[in-house]
Amino acid sequence: MNDTMSVCMLSYFKKTAEDSVVRELIEFALELSQKHIQELTVIFQDHNYPIPYGFTEEDVDLSGPQLFTDNYYLYYLHQWSGVGLDSYSLSLMLAANKDVIQYFSECVNESKELLNRTKEVLLSKGLFIRAPYIPIPSKVEFVHKHNFMAGWFGERRPLNTLEIATLFANYQRNALAKVTFIGFSQVAKDKEVIKCMLRGKDLASNHIKGFDTILHASDLPSSETWDTMVTDSTVPVFSDKLMMFHISTLLNRGVGFYGTSLGVSSRRDLGAHYLKILGGLLLFAEDIANLMIDKGWMEQPPSMVNRDELSKIKGDHVKD
Predict the structure, then answer these.
(1) pLDDT reading at 187 higher than 70
(2) What digits encode the pLDDT tens for the residues 76-94?
(3) Domains and CATH numbers, the chain
(4) Geometric angle at alpha carbon 59, from 54 and 62, rounded to 5°
(5) How far apart are CA 20 and CA 18, in angstroms?
(6) Is residue 64 within 8 Å of 30, Cβ to Cβ?
(7) Does residue 201 contact residue 181 with C-beta atoms inside 8 Å?
(8) Which pLDDT score is estimated for 67?
(9) Closest Cα partner for 148 from 128, 126, 163?
(10) Which residue blocks in the chain are alpha helix, DSSP H?
(11) Considering only CA atoms, which of 68, 201, 220 is closest in space to residue 130?
């Protein structure tokens, strides 16, 4: 599902990219997704599983004008290669079938290569945004005061490196998500889909403001916003079904990243902040899923048979 979506997105990115270096990087990512689809098709067929329908050339208009800038393409590849590395690593840990283990092992290596190549391009163009620096400590210290975990009342300790890194990364993810929501809202056709995109934009903006406030309270700079990386085009280039699937995936990964951030944040006020925004994100994700179901856009993953339902059918047969 994700790779067929990526083929549509990356094919459009490749067609509209202006910088040859950016286009070459997009081509590499596109080739990986096309390769994945071929390999997954074989695995599904070998194990007699139905092949997901996913997305096709009907879900993208390659003749449309540029909706996002080349810089957006770079940040998009950087973020999503990281998401892929995270997802494939988890899948590799859970896999037991030899073919599946081999597949996800290759995907991990490919994601690492795409991530590193994208980072090199960002660095060469002066576009890579580094997390805030902190002074190097002169010695190792241990925590001796319980107010290390305080945050609501009294004196708050400065943020530690794990908290800074996750806050900064979440700021950047939301900055890219906001641009994506803006672009999708401009080209969506269905009024309900447009409302979802505008709601997502507002949600991402609120999350950005929250992270910005927390970082500045510790005298740390936040990242920059990227609202200018979307053009003024309103020509539909992606199907509403594809865009809704894309933001559904975006929200699901956001829940995972916020959960990780919650786990490494020791200050109670940070934990409360992540729990609050997680609740809003989960509600939005549920509304997105419900709309996709109403529109007939959500493919159902293979699931366990309903034993209770089978028993009822058998009971009716015996009764007859």
Answers:
(1) yes
(2) 999 999 999 999 999 999 9
(3) 1-128 (1.20.1260.10), 156-303 (1.20.1260.10)
(4) 130
(5) 6
(6) no
(7) yes
(8) 97
(9) 163
(10) 2-16, 20-46, 70-94, 98-124, 161-187, 191-217, 240-264, 268-295, 307-319
(11) 220
